[in-house]
């Protein structure tokens, strides 16, 4: 067996994405499989990534005075039933403890699927006065949700690690501000640590968190599978949960009593569950372009915000006292981050790690050592380099070690300074010379094993995704150089051994920048702007995300989920799009979009894998939505079935197989989010129901 066969990936990413991914996460030693389906062993490589994410985010939220807690993992049935709308989403996945030994429990307890019902009864005890606010709680823990679908490592597991934050405020203004602050932190995790572009937006009514007032999200796209993935969420719960768990405080001054429809004075209600996110309101009413650049400005223009000077927690003259239900938020991110990074960056050679989260940023491999040749000078040369790697390096002088993204948040931090690309205002990391003196060593591994060849070592570390490989032999010793190979693109660089620490640091920063730009380019090429339902179906079947003018109505979204993209006839009939012209060329096959729920531990259930490789495409249906009066065309150009919904059930558009009964095949598509970076679409119609469009919506298949 060759080294490539032993260590390498035997399936290509573009041929079988699901199998390729399973091989990458196991052969790179990110995880190992466990005897229980959906549970995985996180090995040192993946746990290191999670630790870096944890450290980065902790530094961010500590500046907001968020405190760390740990709550029990067990929850009673009565606590869960407090909020039926909330727990309804988790009910099928709840794991219950019903006995110990041979004794049945009188009151079974569940293992937490999330912690609202565990924490909020405590909040009710802890909070009495407005002086107790704000309360800001965070915990890092494991979660158990008994997935009924097939599982995928990191992306959809039964047990996973996450961070969950739960906060309570006196006013909705404070609550809204924090929602977007946290959303920005999540975006920074993906951009600054993982080199992944994400789209910030708000969830639709159907997709928001159960019981939330509104849900904000960062969404990623996996080009290899043609699916989107929810990367992290930050929810405004309004007063919905505080009413349920009786979390209220005595407030002083003209602050509002928390009773009513939720759009009155600060501290007023919000219990109606209406989406009052001001960014979304701006799109619905004023059609502003929502950039969401500054999370601190999300409520300043809210017409429903009462700017009464008494709306603070300062010591002010009292007018009256009343009980107010607190305004709550919850927010979380999971080990799904690791899966997203692996899916986007890795290739047919194995894992590709972003430098800032790599356990080893550099692997050093001595070369040219043979029996009888004195290798002492070579290893002395290598030692001078490793000492420089260990000597340290400085960024902004904050003391946190900015060389790899310290999370300090300081404006002057050279290693966290952003520049803006003129085209799309996206994050791109700038390369700056280092000026200060705070140590931050380069993480390296010297592979000096003598029982294997250098080629063996190359394959071994390549599949594990180490960003830089440094080869040092007698040639490099004699020339005072290093041979450096980048894992990301395979580029070979010869560096003079002078200021080598600084040169390697800049190489690592350049790798991060290039990885981000590559991921951004691949994502943007797969987000397609269309305005008709027919193009919508076509691009979804091509494995793309679709940006469309949308009315944002809940009923329209529900109808879209029921509405299929293709019609299937009787025996022997080809699959084709609704409204396609049968005389046009439908021979173009759609991209094979296998269901990533078909992971390694469920490969015996291949019926779970969606295979659309036989779907026909019609590339000439771009303008059918503008031709509503062509239904008399005998060659079945049924252009606008979106305006003639009743024709979808029993129509035979081929005109030849009238005895065939056609059934609608669901697209499996949903609204990923309504992006904050939006535009005025007031002059357009909804792509699905033909009502006036309110905003651009991002739709696609999703994990």
TrEMBL record:
- Write the record's keywords in alphabetical order, separated by commas: Aminoacyl-tRNA synthetase, ATP-binding, Ligase, Nucleotide-binding, Protein biosynthesis
Q: Where are the transmembrane segments?
A: none
- GO CC, one annotated term: cytoplasm
One matching Pfam family, short form? ProRS-C_1
Q: Does the keyword Membrane apply?
A: no
Some GO term, biological process aspect, for this entry: which one? prolyl-tRNA aminoacylation
Residue ranges annotated as compositionally biased, kind Gly residues, are 255-273
Q: What class of enzyme is it?
A: ligase
Q: Where is the Aminoacyl-transfer RNA synthetases class-II family profile domain?
A: 49-260
Disordered: region residues:
253-323, 562-662
Q: Where is the composition biased (Low complexity)?
A: 295-315, 621-639
Q: Which reaction does it catalyse?
A: tRNA(Pro) + L-proline + ATP = L-prolyl-tRNA(Pro) + AMP + diphosphate
Q: Which Gene3D superfamilies match?
A: Anticodon-binding domain, Bira Bifunctional Protein, Domain 2, C-terminal domain of ProRS
Residue stretches of biased makeup (Basic and acidic residues): 281-294, 572-620, 640-655
EC assignment: 6.1.1.15
| Assigned protein family | Belongs to the class-II aminoacyl-tRNA synthetase family.
Q: Which PANTHER family match?
A: BIFUNCTIONAL GLUTAMATE_PROLINE--TRNA LIGASE, PROLYL-TRNA SYNTHETASE
Name recorded for this polypeptide: proline--tRNA ligase
Native species: Hamiltosporidium magnivora
Q: Lineage in the entry?
A: Eukaryota, Fungi, Fungi incertae sedis, Microsporidia, Dubosqiidae
